[in-house]
Amino acid sequence: MRVNQELWARLKYWGRLTVLSLAGALVALYLFSAVSFSANSLEFMLELVPFNRGETVIVLPPLGEVRALTHRAPFMIKLTLVNLKPDFLTDTLPGLSGDSQAWQLKKQLGEKLFKCIFRWSVISGLGGAGAWFLCNRKTSGRSLLAGGILASVLGLLLFGCTVALPYDLDAFKKPRYQGAIGAAPWVVDLVADSLSSLKTAGEQLKVLSVHMRNLCEQLEQTYPATEDVSLTVLAISDLHNNPAALKFIDKIIQTFQIDLIVDAGDLTDYGTALEAELVRKIAGLPVPYLFIPGNHDNPQVVAALREVGAQVVEDQILEVAGLRVLGLADPASDSPSMEVAPESKLRA
After folding, report:
1. Cβ neighbourhood burial of 305 (10 Å; 0-12, 13-18, 19+)
2. pTM value?
3. Is the pLDDT of residue 272 over 80?
4. What phi, psi does 217 have (nearest 5°)?
5. Residue 29: which of 124, 148, 128 has the closest Cα?
6. Average pLDDT value for residue range 336-340
7. How far is residue 150's CA from residue 126's CA, in Å, rounded to a whole number?
8. Vertex 293, ends 207 and 331: CA angle to 5°?
9. Residue pair 325/290 in contact by the 8 Å Cβ criterion
10. Angle at 315 between CA 256 and CA 238, to 5 degrees
């Protein structure tokens, strides 16, 4: 009888320890699983969110989310693109069409994932030990260690059985879209195809600028100007996150001895912080840059332009190098979101 009581006490102890350790591990993962890491010119945040459906969610701000049922519950894997550096579009992405570059990126992501799993196991152990301590304040260090180890092992087993082993990458062949990307998922393929040839397009634009210069020289010889040109202005607009366009502009500046650039707006598509990174490239242009905000720009983009030295012309007349420029900003550029300005403001 006494043996049965001792056995029952042990079973009760280990059962309670198992339940509390697992609960503590799940709560700790829910609170502290987020991990930030970089791969090439991409910055991600990876989260293992318990108490959810067994799906993988890829968040692509500001476009929306791509979801797929890739594994079993109770974990959701959430991968958020936090930042994309402009050189990724011109240098890294075109190279991903080759097997070696794509394999290198996959290898980096695999290494980061392995480190994340190790981190999650440590978090699980600390969460399990913490839960056991909260429910047993007078417990021994040996029991805390047992609770931590048990939580780590249970967390890894649960992750392996529900996520790693049954993970189905083919589920992304039939994904679900949320947000703006859901209205036109074909845009993803279109953008990928366009960006894969971005480097080639940039080289072609350089050649085009040289041909334009030669054409202008021939026209000048045939029809010489009657007055001396004291100021050469390059008028541009609607770049819409095109890094190749900035390289083209730089080539035009060198070829035609440009004195001033006037940008009529729409430097970005959505005016997000991610897109505002393109603004940093403008700081490298060797001539004054005047910018009149368009409806695709917002206060965040305007502030970033001012930080890099651009002159923002908003409802005013600005004189630069003897040239008077009247700039009327689009009323929608005052809003942080892409919304059409009220009719009263448009009339004003």
Report:
1. buried
2. 0.51
3. no
4. -65, -40
5. 124
6. 57
7. 10
8. 145
9. yes
10. 45
